Structure formats: structure tokens, C-alpha cells
Amino acid sequence: MPSCSPSITTMIRMDHTHVMAAFHRYHAETSWWRKRAIIELACTALEIHAQLEEEIFYPALSEAMAGDERLAKSKPEHDQMREDIAKLRAMGPQDAAYDARFMQLMREVMHHVADEETVLLPTAERALASQLSELGARMTKRRMQLVAQSRPSAIAANTFGTFPLASLAVMSLGALAIAHCLRPASARRIRRSA
Ligand SMILES: [Fe+2]
Ligand SMILES: [Fe+2]
């Protein structure tokens, strides 16, 4: 049966957008506790994203781009990113080099993302057209495993620290939905027939 999952390229673009949004929250004058939340959220998201690409996306694409150096440099760039993340985690926000090191990580990631979005993703959409949805389903399944291994409570806390207003809006919508479901059925019927 064909998969109705979003395509793997859509998911990759959504991950990139999420990390860029976290980057844009970071300013030199941001409080130290928010800087830590933003960096932890961005770094965990990047680690999971890179692992998903390496396990699922790059292998599927390697046949279509065999020998192409634009794909060959992707894994070394991920390795460089992991090194930078390890160095950042060994520092604290009060460290004088903290901002500069995070800005460097941002530059490298933006460059990598630009290459993926202008070369690898369009190539995948042409070469893997019939598999994009099935690969997307595999990515979702694997993502759930990796998130479960990465302290989901810390991810939730850092998401709140990075995007407080958006998190409150999501929680409010959730509370409204729960309140609606908990309301007596008779009240819902009266409202519907009014
Ligand atoms: Fe990548
Ligand atoms: Fe990517």
C-alpha cells in the first residue's frame, strides 16, 4: 500500500526551518539561561537531523549522485558540526568565546543547509520521486526512537526556553481541546443545535 506520509524532502526542509528559527532567537544580549536553552535545542535538533540524513536520506540518494562531490562532502560537514557542538557543550554561556563559537556553528550550518536545499533536495525529488513518501515514513519512525533516547523532557524545556510564546499558544490550544472534550456531551449538543 502506498505511504501517505509527508515526503522525506518536506521533512528535511521543516527540520532546517526549525533550526533556523532557533538560530534567529539568539542575540548577544540574550539572557544566559535562554542562550543555553537555544543552543541545547538547536544542537539536539541538529544531531538528530544529521543522524536521520546519514541513516536514511544520503544512502537513498547516493545511487542517484554516485561520485558527485556535492554529496561526498555532506558527511564530513556533519562531523565538523558534531565537533563544534561538543566544544560548545564543554563551555558555559558566561565564557567569552561562547557567542563566537555558536555564531561559527550557525555559519557552517547555514552554508550546509543552503547546499542541501539547492542541490541535494531537488536532485532527490527528481531521482527518488516514487520513494519520497516511504522514505518520509521511515524517517518519522526513526525520529521517534532518537527523540526517546535524547531526554524528551529536556527537549520540551528547551523548546519552551527558545520559543516561549509559541509554546504557550500550543499549550493553550491543547487546553482548549481538552476542555472541549471534557465538556458534557449534552452541552456540546445544545451548542451545536443553537
Ligand atoms: Fe545534512
Ligand atoms: Fe539537512
TrEMBL record:
One Pfam family per UniProt: Hemerythrin
Protein name as catalogued: Cation-binding protein
Keyword annotations: Membrane, Transmembrane, Transmembrane helix
Keyword Plastid: no
Coiled coil: none
Domain (Hemerythrin-like): residue spans on this chain: 8-123
CDD domains named in the record: Hr-like (cd12108)
Organism: Caballeronia zhejiangensis
TM ranges: 160-182
Domain of life: Bacteria
